[in-house]
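pasting for ref
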Amino acid sequence: MRRRAVQMILTAVTVVALLMGIPGAVMGSTMVWNSEQRALEARAQSLARAVDRRVAEGQEVPRNLVEAWASPLSSDQSEAWTRVSLRGEDAIEVGPRVEGVTLTGVVTTVLGTTVRMEVPATHAMRKAALVVAAFLGGVVASLVVGWALANRLSRRLSAPLIYLAAQAEQIGSGQVRARVKPSGIEEIDLVQDELVRTGERMAGRLAAERQFAADASHQLRTPLTALSMRLEEIEMITSEDEVRQEAQRSLEQVERLTAVVSELLDPSARSGGLTEAIHVVEVFITEREEWEEQFAKAGRELVFTDEAEQPVLADGAKLAQVLATLIENSLRYGAGTTRVVARRSTNKRGVMIDVSDEGTGVDEDLAPDIFEYGVSGHGSTGIGLALARDLMQGMGGRLELTQQRPPVFTVSLAAIPPSLDPDRVMPEGPLVSMGRRSRRF
């Protein structure tokens, strides 16, 4: 938006500057030319009056009189070729003939005296060129000032919109109490007020949803806890190894079922949360510390590469959970080197994280439903990828299977422009300041 605003303002300034500058330059140069022409005609008129006085008194017109008026009267005048024609007498010519473009002044008096003066037009053309250059310099200066003002105004206009988007992101991620100070722009403030009302409505719905999740969790965990205790008791009192092993397996399944129930009954934790500007490399460091040893024990290599080097808008804990799910699947079902590579998207507005290995990949019949709950190609619960997809959607991103053989899973996230300070785009806490200073970044 900032670029578009700058382009619009510069276009308007350019059009106005050209509409004012071109006619001004033409008029200015014309006025300079006419001024030089009138000055030459005034010289010729003065000489003609001097000649008429001599003729009226019956005196002879001396040549030095014509030479005096033909000579330049000031530093900004040129020597003129002058011809004085008298009635019944020979004409008097003074000065060299002028070649090229000339200015000509001709005066004829009532006594029949004709004075013709010619001077080179170079001096007048030089003055006209200076006038045109001055107007062109004014146009360039107008464009420079317009560009500076356009950048300043576009920043002042885009800053409230950026913080408005941050507020909407906070509300969308579950922070229904996010607040923004008035920006002073009526239209943006109206949208902010509507977002506040939307947040209040969402708060009521989330409260009801969380109450339902708490009640359902309590009702389901109570029998599961009792079942776990019963299985532990059987494991302790039995003397048969086969029964003890079956009790252990059953207890593991109950614990897994308890974890699945907790995840399924907490949709707000999956789809909501606090998104902020984070650096992908920090998440990579955490995941390397967690999984590198396990890959080494399996005789495999785990490689992390951050080619994007750009902050993203995400929840660090949930992004780490999504990457952990993909890395764990690669460790269990993949082969060869597992690579986790962060790269910029083609439009430079996002960051893509590719998780790949050298295994056999995903079957053709399984690929379309790989992210559905309960779908698994290896006999697992089918919860991990589905939950990871929900977590990504809650952060405003995507999780996709971009290649089947060898498998490549791609995480897509919104990127923060490098020119903006991440801490200013998404300030910590629910309050986003709209003061004059905070809008400058």
